[in-house]
Amino acid sequence: MTSADDVLAELAALRAGDLPTHGGRTLAYVYDSAVPGLDDLAARAHALASSVNGLDPTAFPSLLRLENDVVATAARLLGGTSETVGTVTSGGTESCLLAVLAARDARSVESPSIVLPETAHAAFHKAAHYFGVRVVAVPVDPKTFRADPAAVIAAIDDTTVLVVVSAPSYAHGVVDPVPPIAAACLERGVRCHVDACIGGWVLPFAPDAPPFDFSVPGVTSISVDLHKYAYCPKGTSVLLHANADLRRPQYFAGAAWPGYTMLNSTTQSTRSGGPVAAAWAVLRHIGDDGYRTLALTALESTRVIREGIESIDGLRVLGEPDSTLVAFASEDVDVFVVADEMRARNWYVQPQFAHRSSPANLHLTVTAANAGAEAGFLADLRASVDAARAAEPVDVPAEVVAFVEALDPDALTPQEFAGLLAAAGLGGGAVLPERMATVNTLLAAARPPLRERLLVEFLGMLYS
Ligand SMILES: *Cc1c(COP(=O)(O)O)cnc(C)c1O
Question: What is the pLDDT of residues 408-456, one digit of tens each?
């Protein structure tokens, strides 16, 4: 056997190659509360319950209790009533998947559809893909990036099983106008899901957040991720339904085999007690007052960063962010080069490709850990913009861009994809080029279906 110490040392050495998950330098993917001792508490709670199986809550009543506590906390925060019920899931995507599944199976519709503002999270496209539901995508207001209520309402028809709004959207951090859309859903008898995966643990504490929760008539379900702004370890989200009837079609029972009757509330069957125990412990430890402080801290840091960005020549914040996310674009520097320059200064900011009215931009997820360090971030951002302005333009010949734009993903062989990836600088397996601007420029030229196929091929190269 290899000694435990050696194994852990090996793991630590592998982890050293990752982006930092703490300290506020990685402005996507990770959420740092900077609360001392929180990681340790979560790890110990996780260890206490990781061998317990949520598959059978009657065998392991501790998990039943933990899940009901967590759901009750989320429901209380989000305007729930005594009727509100919920489920702890593995993450935001699973919460969104289950909201769509429950909506699809609640009605018998020949060709069911969901109405999505174009800014809705890709998780809903995944749900549509998995569950055979059509997406009806509705353009958003090109200036504010908020859903256009009239356009969303006009898109509802007899096949609509669910309308989705975001609080806020991931890409731009703006909250959709929930009340008029939810009211129309109520009138038409259509479910209305509020995707508060990223805002649901911040907006309830924000002094002037737009209305978005169960207090808005017509809202039938809400997703909120604990592994985002509740600062719990990865692997927990909550899907709330306004009542138990709405939730019922989300459940699965399978008695047509000789084993135990499979009875599941989520897509998983065996479910580790670790994530829910860790989340329960973190929620208990931080409490409402702690979350209010953390939310206000992150919101204030976002304000400082946003105003700093607006004061940098050449940068423009997209829309008016309502929460802790900021997206900014530029008309005179290449934002993909700015991202590389920030990376060279040990910051990770997330490139977002242009889509419909949204130009190419950089996304920031601001957390409590950014508080107090805004000036350093902004100074490096200013320097990165200057460096991007001084740099040669990204060297991708116009004819290559034109070639990529014209490619039809359905007509390409796996070998041709491999060639394209190599040409884009993604041919080296797991080794990414140090600077990604060229790759991003080529990917940006590819229309979404081609970009999807290219990146699927890339994923296949990464994983053995
Ligand atoms: C993060 C996010 C999701 C998906 O959540 P995962 O936990 O990454 O699966 C869905 N919707 C919104 C608005 C999000 O921010």
Answer: 888 888 888 888 888 777 776 667 788 999 999 999 999 999 999 989 9
Mean pLDDT of all residues in the chain?
96
Grade residue 345 by pLDDT with cuts at 50, 70 and 90: very high
Ligand 1 geometric centre to CA of 250 (Å): 19
168 upstream amide cis, omega within 30 of 0: yes
Burial 407-428 (b: 16+ CB within 10 A, else e): bebeebeeeebbebbeebebee
The response to whether residue 198 sits with its C-beta less than 6 Å from ligand 1 reads: yes
- Break the chain into its structural domains and give their ranges: 42-283, 288-390, 398-462
pLDDT of residue 428: 64
Domain 42-283 in this protein, CATH class: alpha beta
Q: Tell me whether strands 134-138 and 113-117 are parallel, antiparallel or unpaired.
A: parallel
- pTM confidence score: 0.97
Instruction: Compute the distance from residue 397 Cα to the ligand 1 centre, in Å.
Output: 36
Answer yes or no: is the C-beta of 92 below 6 A from any ligand 1 atom.
Answer: yes
440 lines ligand 1 (CB under 6 A): no
Contact present, 360 and 353 (Cβ < 8 Å): yes
Name the burial class of residue 458, with classes exposed (0-12), middle (13-18) and buried (19+) by CB atoms within 10 angstroms of its CB: buried
Would the CB of 195 count as within 6 Å of ligand 1? yes
**Minimal-distance CA residue to ligand 1 atom 10:** 92
Give the tens place of pLDDT for each residue, 188-214. 999 999 999 999 999 999 999 999 999
Give SS3 for 90. Answer: coil
Which CATH superfamily includes the segment(s) 288-390? Answer: Aspartate Aminotransferase, domain 1 (3.90.1150.10)
With residues binned 3-state (H G I as helix, E B as strand, rest as coil), the percentages for the chain, rounded to 5, are 45, 15, 40
CA-based angle 35:39:42, to the nearest 5? Answer: 115
CA separation, residue 42 to residues 68, 178, 217, 234 (Å): 18, 34, 36, 10
- Reading the block at residue 239, the tokens are 């899907």
Ligand 1 pocket member 325 (CB < 6 A): no
